[in-house]
């Protein structure tokens, strides 16, 4: 870290960004080395002081410490508590990590844990995706692809993977996004089959997995993603191309349901179905009239705690999105 002494002076003066930078240098410069007690105390003090100033990134860093047991006893519940604090400030990354912790409660080690809370995980990933967080878009795609909590919709999953890919190059989900998109193009799942695009994406996935392994993310590296990407590339090179799958016509009635639930004041009280409908419409960010209705309805559901936990700040965010969508709908090209 260049100018470390200068950053320490700024941190001592109370600059939250400097406090976070110095703390992360202490904690993660060499994650395999034991941290000297005095430096560990300094790092914790800096992060807690930055968090006390409302700095969401510092709250996340404290969560990461407890998640990984870096300098402190590993404690997923304490990590989640810090994620929650950051999420209360609408920090997009916080929602993603909350979703991971809920989906895989044992610390990201067992993707089939029977204690997984897919409903609340979806809620967290949905909020992150609405805040344009690429990892959350990727996870939303996975949930639609496999039908966890929501009905399986591979076309919609593919669209979420595409949205994530636009923003995920430097994020930890990049390797997985490339693999998912490569496999979709290889088999024609959710999109038309395109072997050239599949090869390009799978090659990117292999490189990204290998980069993560060098950075010490060995668990993810050996979990199958790298092996799967290489296998599919070998299939392409050997000419073992599967028959293209038929792409079904989009016969979803989500748009019509969105209008029905929004205009009928959810009279059926089927809040779960309504929430899933509104969420899907809002994530598409097309057909501005539908998006306006969906976000207004979501604002009400989050404000009143209908099916989802009450969240006044996110309700306000949904209302702001609705106003923006309504403004955009004034453009004739966006009208239904």
Provide structural commentary.
The chain starts with a helix and ends in an 8-residue tail after the last helix. The relative contact order is 0.06. It has 336 residues and is an all-alpha fold. Among the domains are: 1-89, Tetratricopeptide repeat domain (Serine Threonine Protein Phosphatase 5, Tetratricopeptide repeat, Alpha Horseshoe), CATH 1.25.40; 254-334. It has helices at 4-12, 16-28, 37-52, 56-68, 76-87, 92-103, 118-130, 134-146, 154-165, 174-187, 195-214, 218-237, 254-263, 271-284, 288-304, 312-328. Helix 11 packs antiparallel against helix 12. It is built from 16 helices and no strands. Residues 106-112 and 332-336 have low confidence and may be disordered. The chain is globular and about 60 Å long. 67% of the residues lie in helices and 0% in strands.
